[in-house]
# Entry
Amino acid sequence: MSRAERTGTPGWKFYVAVWLAMMAVHQDFWNWRDATLVFGFVPVGLAYHLGYSILAAVVMAVLVRRAWPAHLEALERETADGGTSDGGR
# Structure
């Protein structure tokens, strides 16, 4: 049983799908010729990218929190304590 199955967190395929979806919606070609202003002064393309940037920050925070490889943290602790990084070989 994998860690994702034990803890109820989504697996790596879900995270890859979210990343791919974000890459797809980043190409906002539908806003290129739209002259609409948001709040009366912000072009719609700029407002879209503001929202996208906030979403990207949230997604990255979730990825770091949920999908960070634990073996890297163990390796970092080991090398910080004066151990070797090659597993003691």
The two ends are 30 Å apart (CA to CA). The chain has a mean pLDDT of 80. Helices lie at 3-7, 12-26, 44-67, 70-80. The longest helix spans residues 44-67.
